[in-house]
Design the sequence.
DNA sequence: CGAATAGTGTCTATCAGACACTATTCG
DNA sequence: CGAATAGTGTCTGATAGACACTATTCG
């Protein structure tokens, strides 16, 4: 039945409505020991005045692919060019957008908070960081963006359990204690220092820079992310092997 | 910049092209100790004659949401109404479809092979099961469907390592040995019987039916999937806890 | 020296993995 | 009884988790 003449003519075909195609980005950063997402206030209908995820229509002329579209939205808001970016999934139905049947492709990005300097939108849109409380933001959001944020937070938490993803939320040089703190902030629970360090170092995604961070105490070694180790799973026994 | 008047008018707006919106389904089943996917032969251009994933345009009038669209495609091909269905992700760019910029929302489904009786398509399309070799199918597929199949296989394998997903590939009543065999077929490696059984039973997603499967040997206990335990993660220590 | 945080060592319970062993049926 | 597969028991090595201990700096 695939695109049979009578049943599925392409968009723009005779008398057939096509879904709207959008891209949205859930941009995470840790600030003041709290997980935050970046939201923009909508200037126009629908949902004028409400806060929403940075995003919008895919531009067939400018965007080579979905990820490029997501990257463009991200750059417009933050000026950041190549953060960690991962596809979360897509959300589409008849009712989420009053303008019509719409589907949005959602990505999530992890920013090292230090790198963030919000860009004034071309049309002077407001952009602001919102703290995550539980799995959501306190504000009611435009469209189904509240649900999307919750899904992104759930995904980030799940992955934090068994991967080193949170390194991307930390500036280029950092101490193990700082990295641990970010993990704790995301998971909303304390972690054991000794176990954390063993695990992080065993996963072989960090390298010491040789420098240290001074303080009113013993100085801490500084680390950076090893090249080529942007996505690391913690080593753990997965499954009964035989053969 | 979201849907600013001059930069992102909705589809159908004045002189602006909108992406095509499709849904495709990767339908898995295990037959003859091999993982298979269901493909259909395209009757029309583009890629007429090539094998492709069941799928096609989202029908704004009939499909309430993306998952419903995927379910519709699945039912048209297999007659199966409620198998395990999960979103894989979306794939969209300017070149994957010669008809224009297109984005497809991909789902994957797990069928218990016994339940499968292929439906003749309305326009007598052919449908056939193809064995997975490595991460792909031997045939060259239409569009970027080869890549999509590979991504689906990778996801299924990854999840088989730490969840009980493969129960959905096994008929309603089954022995532990049969379930183990399916895991082995997906992972393409032998598993240790003792460890597999301990793990499966400890995860508490199976219940004995009380019946047994006879054979030229000691009869095996039959199990079924416990209600409400459709998605089960194997218990394993994830992370250093403290507090 | 004391405060403060960095970093290490030790013990224990759990579990994957390997593998051998026992159990129960059919012919 | 022997073949064949179901199902269990035992040992070992790895590691999460708890927690105490040592190390190094500043003021």
Sequence:
């Amino acid at each position: 039945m695939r695109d049979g003449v009578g049943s599925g003519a392409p968009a723009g075909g005779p008398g057939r409505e096509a879904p709207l195609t959008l891209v949205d980005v859930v941009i995470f950063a840790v600030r003041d020991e709290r997980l935050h997402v970046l939201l923009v206030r909508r200037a126009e209908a629908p949902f004028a005045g409400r806060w929403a995820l940075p995003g919008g229509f895919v531009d067939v002329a400018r965007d080579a692919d979905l990820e490029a579209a997501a990257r463009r939205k991200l750059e417009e808001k933050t000026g950041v060019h190549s953060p960690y970016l991962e596809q979360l999934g897509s959300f589409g139905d008849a009712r989420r957008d009053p303008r019509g049947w719409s589907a949005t492709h959602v990505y999530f990005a992890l920013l090292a908070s230090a790198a963030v300097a919000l860009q004034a939108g071309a049309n002077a849109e407001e952009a602001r960081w919102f703290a995550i409380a539980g799995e959501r933001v306190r504000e009611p959001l435009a469209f189904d963006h509240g649900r999307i944020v919750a899904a992104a937070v759930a995904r980030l938490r799940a992955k934090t359990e068994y991967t080193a993803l949170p390194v991307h939320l930390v500036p280029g040089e950092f101490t193990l204690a700082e990295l641990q703190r970010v993990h704790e902030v995301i998971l909303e629970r304390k972690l054991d220092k000794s176990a954390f360090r063993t695990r992080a170092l065993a996963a072989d995604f960090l390298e010491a820079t040789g420098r240290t961070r001074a303080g009113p105490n013993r100085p801490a070694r500084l680390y950076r992310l090893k090249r080529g180790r942007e996505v690391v799973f913690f080593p753990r026994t997965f499954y009964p092997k035989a053969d």
User: Anything to note?
Assistant: The CA atoms of residues 214 and 220 of chain B lie 7 Å apart. Residues 1-15, 237-243 of chain B have pLDDT under 50 and may be disordered. The beta strands of chain B are 20-31, 34-41, 51-52, 55-57, 84-93, 102-110, 127-133, 136-137, 206-213, 220-225. Chain B is about 20% helix and 30% strand.
